[in-house]
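User: I'm putting together a teaching handout on how multi-component assemblies are represented. Below are the sequence lines for each component of a complex, exactly as they appear in our records. Could you produce the 3D structure of the whole assembly as structure tokens, so the students can see both representations side by side? Please keep the chain order the same as the input.
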Amino acid sequence: MNFLDFEKPVQELLDQIEKVKQVGEKGKVDTTGTVKDLEDKIVETRKQIAGKLTPWQKVQLSRHPDRPYTLDYIEALTNGTFFELHGDRNVKDDKAMVGGLGKVGDQSVMFIGQQKGNTTKMRQYRNFGMPNPEGYRKALRLMKMAEKFNIPIVTLIDTPGAYPGLEGEERGQAEAIARNLFEMMRLKVPVICIIIGEGASGGALGIGIGDKVLMLENTWYSVISPESCSSILWRSWDFKEKAAEQLKLTPEDMLHNKLIDGIIKEPLGGAHVNPQEAFAFVKEELHKQLEKLLKNDPEKRIQKRIAKFCAMGAFEEKK
Amino acid sequence: MADSWFQRIKEGITTSTREKKETPEGLWYKCPSCKKIIPSEEHVANAFVCPSCDYHERIGSIEYFYLLFDDNKFLELSTEIMPTDPLHFVDTKNYKERLKATQGSTGLNDAIRTAVGPMNGKGVVIACMDFKFIGGSMGSVVGEKIARAIDYCIENKLPFVLISKSGGARMMEAAFSLMQMAKTSAKLTLLADAKLPFISLLTDPTTGGVTASYAMLGDFNIAEPGALIGFAGPRVVKETIKKDLPKGFQTSEFLLEHGFLDAIVNRKEMKNKLSHLFSMLMQGKQEEVS
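Assistant: Of course. Below is the structure of the complete assembly, with chains in the same order as your input.
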């Protein structure tokens, strides 16, 4: 298990429990009461931490090394029915963008999302969750297929950004993202987008146009990462905490500014503390949203989707 | 009238900054590319393009409207839309003050102007970004003005030209800025449904979220020669790959070669080429205006 700085009090309590248990075993003493007290204390501590998380700490939680990634969610939601589909039919299969069909309850769903890796080797294999143009084109191919067979789409967003490499530029990173924005606006099937980790800029938005855009509790979504924002605006990497505050990138801020449609709660302490519970929360929300969206007429759904994004912005009208 | 000698009889400078000519008579223009010096008037007459090396000087909406609308005749749209500071953003400066200062120094409300007018006798709506306004960054005003320009096109059955010149999203509007990519793309689907043509004109520089939304969504993507066009900026790409970038990387010519532009057009020929394309597409359905 990995612990972030501000999770250290929890780590200490867990260590204490471990020690108490060892002492108990050696001396054949009943420690149930002490352990129970310590466990209660952990819950209390977690509540305290959760109650005063700063935006930067939320960013850190969204990147927690133990946090579940896209395929973890998909596997859990589809209960063994997931069939992964590969390739953009043009260049290659982008390992940073995954997709495929699965059943959520009785409903077939097309899942698409950026994928990060758990080990150094897998992180490289997944390109740290940073797709190239072929990733966005693979996503669009799968979305078009879903539309053809009248299957709703769920995208799971978790990316530090679209990959800013040489080949990506050659193959039209910008065009690939732009095309997805345009095409996703008019998809005839319901589209639900969930930010499960990092929602960085165009790389996130490239699969982020939906009837419902939701954020998990400990995630962020903005035009730039706090680190890059700090380096550009303050010309130093040292202002990332301040940048995280200024960017208003938390789910609460995003909902307040009417830039997302809702927040999905996470287990106490974050999705990494109890992934099964996190999956259950997402599943419950998906069922609820799908049921509602599937009832609507496709044309009306598209109109509503377009109107929603057209209403985004803050400006004044001078008299 | 004993004291009239110190009373101001004539008014002082009445030309607003907006109308101010950037190139008064009798001045000289030095091409930053080939270093050749020519009279400014000649440079203006040559569409702000260097006559000897074809270097396209960065120009703004004032100049593009002057070059593309007949006799500089146009009606500016949505002039009432002004930027605000929705996030109370403070970096080294506070955004509100930054806006005020930039509005003062540029005479612009924000990084885009939109207008309707005649181009070779046919009505057209042109939206043009201004790089000198916070790097031509795309905030809520840019998105809203584009949205309203597209509405105007649809209501009046007019074709649309959008001239991009931007460093990308406006960080001080954070996610509001990001969502302008979605908003403008949404409006463009409506323009497409109305079967009205959209020319995206990419000029130096066009990068970031602007490229990754409307600038790449034209029925025709046309660029001026030698423009920097990309998703990530060259510095970021260089840091990522830890190698020097190939010569000509992310130029208009590079993008044409890789299949992302329909054509590269010299600014001197821009007006005629654009109206020619529109006339072929609209086949006489284009409204005559003068």
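A couple of points students might notice: Chain B has two domains: 16-57, 58-282. The beta strands of chain B are 28-30, 37-39, 75-77, 81-83, 112-119, 122-129, 160-166, 198-206, 220-223, 263-264.
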